[in-house]
Specification:
alpha/beta; TIM Barrel; 8-stranded parallel beta barrel
């Protein structure tokens, strides 16, 4: 088995201490506002160096999360934060934003970049693309099965990291807009309000049909390490230190083959949602994976249980052996040399050695004083003193010298590498021209009305090629690639379509292989001009901006390629591998035409395709009467999902006429924006 890294969360200094003293190999935490847990305590920039030195002096690596989408107005601050992280000596930075990743490569090429699970990469093609983009590690999606993980591990082009314990979102990471659209609190920007944990009801379902149990694969760590996964990540930057300690302790025990039922029970009592699940790992989806935070779950974290784990991290643990050499001479200050891990320090006593009035200090007393390394990460090994001791020195001086030498050794071991920092490169300042083009996307070619007026029509990849080639349609690749890679390759190879709508790096990498002109969808999460530049470098010819862009941001965003906005349709709020409707009815009963209800009775349509589901917003975005406010955007994207053919014709006509809305609608986030 390859060396396995236990990677622990640190939402604050207490959790950091708990992780380190529980023997985590690495920790991850946020700094400032550009991290996916902005509501955690996190660390301030002025605390970075001391936090990193604390970890490094104990042999623990530090990965800093800058894994949110950024706006152009925040680019300068985000780059300065990245520079501070590099200068403080972090071992890697975890990123989601394509533009920030591009900038990071230029500003500090020596810094290791880890691709956040928010980047939604779960195919070999996607991993290869991440490698090209300068990433050294990718955090895999939580939705993968053992078989799929195994396939990715075979000849993986970069390191692979996996979540093995903690919260499990219903939505694939990086693809959720529910919190943003319903309350302007963006999960992609670290402020998720977790509306999915509230009651959402499928017919005959659980009543909490968007809430999954917590994930726990701790007993699978050795199996996954043998496959090639190198880092095992614990979710929980918002959780208490005792939880962190218990999870690290359990993971460490699992590596030794000593993970017990008691440990699992402790973890469940410390925090769970109706227990744990391994459903995705074994490909056993459905009702048994669902759970929510019940009263019993809250009350199970007893004081006795918390005390049990707080005692584990209340004291330092010895990690390093130190060799001491002590010498003295009457009339001179005593000298203590300490050696550890190739580091050597020398300290002198504050007072000089004196002629003994009665008897000299003994070697035994010096050795006893130097052995007292408790409360530090060190323990004494070899101790050498003068062969003949004819002087005296207070033992308090020896103790002081020991403390000073160990402090200096700690500083030396905790030193971080110095990295060169380069200026931030400028982004392109090309403004798009409004052309009034309309791109229409359909769930099926059968939904397209006759004599449709549109500049581009997009249909699913599974549409027969004779239909695509005859009409000049573009094709849409699956948004969820779970097990769809081979079929996607086969269909693309046979497709005559010139353009391909791609939702993630996975699908873009595959489309690029077959020479398709790529249109990046709003799910690509392009939110700033640097990301638009990176999109061009990736071979993307057109892009639809993130639905989280306000109209002001969208209008000002520069791009060297054509850009459009999501101007009509129901925003896909979630991409999930676990269909909530299946909790109450079969696919045959559903016929791909179902919905779920929130606690207020509002209906959200659910659509399934190629092994994944999308939960759509309850109302469509409508901007026909606000077209004059849309500037510097080349095309308008329409997402037709539940509309009839007559409704589609009427909607398109309303845009050409700039008509007022008729019926229930929303402006999306164009005017509200996200925090």
């Amino acid at each position: 088995m390859k060396k396995a890294e236990i990677l622990a969360p640190a939402g604050n200094s207490d959790s950091l201490k708990a992780a380190v003293l529980s023997r985590a190999d690495a920790v991850y935490f946020g700094v400032g506002k550009f991290n996916a847990r902005r509501n955690a305590d996190n660390f301030r920039q002025e605390e970075l160096k001391s936090a990193i030195k604390y970890c490094h002096s104990r042999g623990v690596k530090v990965y800093v999360t800058l894994n949110t989408l950024i706006k152009d107005t925040e680019a300068k601050e985000a780059v300065e934060t990245f520079k501070a992280v590099c200068e403080a000596g972090a071992d890697a930075v975890i990123l989601q934003d394509l533009g920030l990743a591009k900038t990071a490569r230029a500003v500090c090429p020596e810094m290791r970049l880890h691709a956040s699970t928010q980047m939604t990469v779960g195919t070999k093609e996607g991993l290869l693309l991440l490698k090209e983009l300068g990433f050294s590690r990718a955090v895999l999606p939580r939705e993968l099965s053992l078989h799929e993980i195994k396939q990715l591990c075979e000849n993986a082009p970069l390191e692979l990291e996996m979540f093995v314990h903690g919260a499990l979102c219903m939505c694939v990471s990086g693809q959720c807009l529910m919190s943003a659209v319903l309350g302007s609190r963006s999960g992609n920007r670290g402020l998720c309000a977790q509306p999915c944990r509230l009651p959402f009801k499928a017919e005959n379902g659980t009543g909490h049909d968007l809430s999954l149990k917590d994930l726990s694969l701790i007993d699978k760590i050795c199996e996954l390490a043998d496959l090639g996964v190198c880092s095992f990540k614990i979710e929980g930057r918002m959780k208490r230190p005792e939880y962190v300690c218990a999870a690290v302790t359990a993971c460490r025990a699992s590596l030794r083959g000593g993970y017990t039922d008691e440990m699992r029970s402790d973890l469940q009592n410390l925090f769970s949602r109706s227990g744990f699940t391994q459903g995705y790992y074994y490909g056993r989806l459905g009702k048994t994976m669902f759970g929510y935070r019940e009263k019993e779950n809250v009350q199970s974290a007893t004081k006795e249980l918390l005390d049990k784990y707080s005692r584990i991290y209340e004291k330092e643990i010895p990690r390093y052996k130190v060799n001491f050499k002590f010498s003295g001479k009457i009339g001179e200050k005593a000298s203590l040399t300490a050696d550890c891990l190739g580091n050597r320090v020398r300290v002198l006593s504050e007072t000089v050695c004196e002629q003994p009035k009665s008897r000299p200090i003994t070697a035994e007393r010096i050795e006893d004083a130097l052995k007292k390394c408790g409360g530090t990460q060190f323990e004494s090994n070899e101790i050498n003193t003068d062969e003949k001791i004819d002087y005296t020195l207070p033992v308090s001086q020896v103790n002081l010298m020991r403390r000073e030498s160990l402090s200096l050794l700690s500083d030396k071991i905790g030193e971080s590498p110095r990295r060169k920092i380069y200026p931030c490169p400028p982004h392109s300042e090309i403004k798009a021209k409004n052309t009034g083009e309309i791109y229409c996307r359909f769930d099926s070619a059968n939904d397209i009305p006759k004599n449709l007026t549109a500049d581009l029509i997009i249909v699913p990849l599974i549409t027969p090629d004779e239909v695509v080639s005859k009409n000049g349609y573009a094709v849409e690749l699956p948004r969820g690639m779970f097990g769809n890679e081979k079929r996607t390759h086969d269909l693309l190879e046979a497709s005559s379509a010139e353009f391909a709508l791609c939702h993630t790096l996975d699908s873009a990498a595959i489309a690029k292989k077959y020479g398709k002109k790529i249109i990046a969808s709003s799910s690509f999460n392009i939110m700033n001009s640097f990301s638009a530049d990176e999109a061009k470098d990736l071979g993307i010819s057109q892009m639809i901006l993130s639905c989280e862009c306000s109209l002001e941001l969208a209008n000002k965003l520069s791009a060297p390629i054509k850009k459009g906005i999501f101007a009509y349709g129901r925003i896909p709020l979630m991409l999930t591998r676990n269909c909530p409707v299946k909790n109450g009815k079969t696919c045959e009963e559903c016929k791909r035409n179902s919905s779920i209800l929130d606690r207020k009775g509002v209906s959200f349509p659910v659509r399934c395709n190629m092994g994944y589901s999308e939960i759509l917003n309850s109302r469509p975005v409508f901007m026909a009467d606000r077209l004059s406010e849309i500037k510097n955007n080349s095309f308008l994207f329409f997402n037709f999902t539940v509309e009839t053919k007559d409704e589609i014709n009427r909607i398109i006509k309303s845009y050409y006429n700039e008509s007022s809305p008729d019926g229930d609608f929303t402006r999306g986030l164009f005017y509200r924006g996200v925090g």
